[in-house]
Amino acid sequence: MLQQSLVMHDTAGVCRISGETSLDGMDGVFYILTPLYMNGATFYTPKDSKKVRIRPVMSAEEARTLIAQLPGVEPLTFASPNEQKNGCAAVLKSGDSMQLARLAKTLYQDQLRRSRQNRRTGINDTATLKKAENLLFGELATALEIPYDQVLTHIREQLEQ
Fold first, then answer.
1. Which partner from 14, 128, 137, 154 sits 20 to 30 angstroms from 38, CA to CA?
2. Can you give the pTM of this predicted structure?
3. Residue boundaries of the structural domains of the chain
4. What residues contact 30, with CB distance under 8 A and at least 6 apart?
5. Would strands 6-9 and 43-46 be described as parallel, antiparallel, or unpaired?
6. Whole-angstrom distance, CA of residue 54 vs CA of residue 95
7. What number of other Cβ atoms are within 10 A of residue 135's Cβ?
8. Domain made up of 60-160: CATH architecture
């Protein structure tokens, strides 16, 4: 499956497969993954892991389709703070781009609501939003071959057309 050099890792985001190796004291073969948007980081992921999700990076067409669908994306709803914590963690771990977009929209709308009420956003929500944006924007930047820091501007421009 992973003959490509760029893949989407569930927590590291877009990574380049720079090789395979074995690790002392551990069974199996590991991919050596270098995240594109984490300077200096390296991940070693079991090649046959059922726990860590690695998938191909979306295509440019899939990225354009996702962006076009963003206005209609429904925010996630949670019945309790504990459900929100677990739900956010599950979405981040899933690596599903549409779910990441829903999560980002949910947390962004919550930030706006709190701001209008002169309340601060919780540090956990802020960190979760940043993680979701990092994963989603990294994949969109790679798929569309644009700089990471231009993704949000690109999304806004596409939605204004």
1. 154
2. 0.88
3. 6-56, 60-160
4. 20, 21, 22, 23, 44, 45, 46, 47
5. unpaired
6. 8
7. 27
8. Up-down Bundle (1.20)
